[in-house]
Write a structure and sequence with these properties.
heterodimer; A: Rossmann fold; Rossmann fold; seven-stranded mixed sheet; 12 strands; B: Rossmann fold; six-stranded parallel sheet; 6 strands; about 40% helix
Chain lengths: ~325, ~300
């Protein structure tokens, strides 16, 4: 399927071009089939103009620029949803999600449980490139709030499919995009067979070894990095290699709901579980998975890798210390007590 | 046979009386531990009853945490309303919402918001959708208190409504209280209506304890919003005669309350004793039915607040 929503320009400030285009395509397709789908956000019309001119051209009257008032904007969209509007609220950056925390956690998330008719609301934001308030990962906080679904797609196909599902399913869905997923490099996911909705709460097996000894659960940008690391290891390709540790790799895709059944199946193949998060490890999604993995399979060995509980420094030189290095990932896969 | 105006006046008087007696009965239940810490409108009844009496049935209402008077004013049926307030399965929201998160879309009583200020941007968005998605000439009324105008959500909401030309009537129930404290702590201008100028929104102030004055001012404000398709702020000066909520202290003296009670809107209400007894019997039946009703079952809806671990 060819993308209809070709951007007018590319910027070096983000690398996830195909993922962005896939989300625009999903919104375009949803708008074409359902006239209650509207886009709202700070500078929404400008974003459509540059990122998705076909949306501007065909559905410009359903793209609404709102002020820089994230909390009010989200409440405003909840109000519109009370009579059937399906809003896509663009909060712009993941850090701004904290500005909208009250309207997301106290208004949007609670309405569905209290009304007979559930609204369909999509809230989207990007992880930016890094700095104290430009690139934080609040997704685990939202995953802990009843009434919200949370997805962090790592491939254009998943981004397309999750956005389509979010717009077709009553309830509140949060979709995070990672600007730094490099989808045009040699390790990029280039499979652009769009058009299929992807359900929330279904993990995707990215790679299955002949003998699974370590199950790696990851999501977001770390899915791509771990996949790149694995593909560079000779023992992954060679079944006769002395190193008998073989890793299965799974992409969570959504961090709420999480497919526990799928994780249980993964743990039947592998008694060792490595969770690699693009988020701060402390209190993160990995902690929940580790606890539930122990309940499902007592005795399972679990390791977690992710970011330290640190304020993100502005200097790009320091960013590489935030997420696990290739060496740390390889060591975590191969060295178990 | 009473005149049409006479019939309408009787109807609003009856509704105010209904609210007053219902809340008094509920207060007794609170003291007996049979109801939670409810928020009552004692002394403020003329505002929701008066404003809603001038609306069309198809107009929408969004409100704050002091909801019982608003629900009755917008035609929510008494029995399931009382059951909801008491957290029963037979309530309008199955007992899941309680007094502060109620909704009854059948009479366009759309939602109530416990958190101060939230109702304003939500109502603005609803008004936006009525205007630009449903494309009807209905309007949205949002009730809020004076204390809400110190909250960012009030300002973001009024700004959004003004910029987007939303048919939204803001009705401020100005009881000069934020919980237990006075406006010297949260309001730097003499009147709430003064705040509207910052958003290019027309505003007026009325005695909110005079039902006829409220109706006249509401008629003017509603016509403004309906015809011009833009927001309007109607500030209603009023008196809260009860506590902020049951179970909470009140810093005001008995004399303070007695002085405020001289303005009690119910002092102007005269109803035939027979009619009073009928209304009281209706309330007692609703309360009796609600008290006997079963508690709600565990919600099974996706992502309900009581969802069990393990999904």
């Amino acid at each position: 399927m060819q993308l209809l929503t070709t951007p007018k320009s590319r910027t070096p400030f983000y690398r996830n071009h195909l993922l962005r285009d896939a989300i625009s395509q999903a919104i375009y397709d949803a708008m074409a089939s359902d006239d209650s789908v509207h886009m709202f956000g700070e500078g929404a019309s400008v974003k459509a103009h540059y990122d998705a001119p076909q949306i501007e051209r065909d559905f410009g009257s359903r793209v609404h620029t709102l002020p820089i008032s994230e909390d009010g904007n989200t409440n405003f969209c909840v109000g519109a949803s009370l009579v059937g509007v399906k809003p896509i609220v663009d909060v712009i950056s993941s850090d701004f999600m904290y500005r909208a925390m009250d309207s997301i956690a106290n208004t949007a998330a609670k309405l569905g449980a209290l009304r007979e008719q559930q609204s369909t609301i999509v809230i989207r934001a990007e992880f930016l490139t890094g700095g104290p308030t430009t690139g934080q990962h609040p997704e685990a906080l939202f995953a802990a709030i009843p009434g919200l679904r949370v997805a962090v797609p790592s491939t254009p196909r998943d981004a397309y499919g999750l956005m389509r599902t979010a717009l077709e399913t009553p309830g509140v869905s949060l979709i995070f995009e990672d600007r730094m997923i490099d989808d045009e490099g040699p390790w990029a996911e280039t499979d652009l067979r769009l058009g299929e909705p992807v359900p929330f709460g279904v993990i995707r097996c990215r790679q299955q070894a002949m003998h699974g000894h370590v199950a790696i659960l990851t999501y977001g940008i770390m899915r791509q990095r771990v996949e790149r690391i694995l593909k560079s290891q000779p023992w992954v390709q060679d079944p006769h290699d002395e190193n008998n540790l073989r890793a299965d790799l799974y992409d969570l895709r959504s961090i709420y709901p999480i497919e526990w059944k799928g994780i249980n199946l993964a743990l039947r193949r592998a008694a060792r579980l490595l969770i690699v998060e693009p988020d701060i490890v402390y209190g993160g999604v990995g902690a929940e998975i580790a606890a539930q993995a122990h309940d499902m399979r007592p005795g399972v060995q679990v390791k977690r890798l992710g970011a330290p509980r640190a304020v993100i420094p502005a200097s790009p030189e320091l960013h590489r210390h935030l997420l696990p290095s290739d060496e740390e990932v390889i060591s975590a896969i191969t060295k178990w007590d | 046979m009473p005149s049409r105006n006479g019939t309408e006046a009787a109807a609003v008087n009856e509704r105010m009386y209904l609210v007053r007696v219902l809340e008094d009965r509920l207060q007794a239940l609170c003291l007996d531990g049979l109801a939670g810490d409810l928020h009552f409108s004692k002394g403020q009844e003329a505002i929701p009853v008066g404003v809603c009496s001038m609306l069309r049935p198809s107009d929408y209402v969004v409100t704050h945490h002091r909801t019982i008077a608003h629900a009755i004013a917008k035609g929510v049926p008494l029995k399931p309303l009382v059951a909801e307030i008491l957290g029963k399965a037979t309530g309008i929201n199955g007992g899941a919402a309680g007094e502060m998160h109620m909704s009854y879309p059948a009479t366009r009583f759309m939602f109530s918001f416990q958190l101060v200020g939230t109702c304003v941007p939500v109502a603005a968005g609803l008004a936006w959708a009525v205007q630009y998605h449903l494309r009807t000439d209905d309007i949205v009324v949002v009730f809020h208190g004076d204390a809400a105008t110190a909250n960012g959500q009030w300002h973001e909401g009024v700004n959004l409504a003004a910029v987007n030309k939303c048919p939204l009537l803001l009705v401020c129930e100005n009881n000069h209280l934020a919980g237990n404290v006075g406006p010297e702590h949260y309001q730097p201008v003499p009147h709430v209506a003064d705040r509207a100028a910052g958003y290019g929104v027309s505003a007026s102030t009325v005695d909110g304890n005079d039902i006829a004055a409220v109706q006249a001012a509401a008629a003017h404000a509603i016509a403004h919003v309906r015809e011009r398709r833009e927001p309007y702020l109607l500030e209603c000066e009023t008196t809260r005669l009860g506590r902020h909520k049951q179970g909470m202290g009140d810093l005001r003296t008995k004399e303070d309350i007695e002085r405020l009670a001289l303005r009690d809107p119910l002092r102007r209400v005269s109803l035939a004793p027979e009619r009073r007894r009928e209304l009281e019997a209706e309330i007692d039946q609703a309360l009796e039915a609600a008290l006997k009703a079963p508690p709600p079952e565990m919600p099974t809806r996706l992502d309900s607040p009581l969802r069990q671990k393990g999904d």
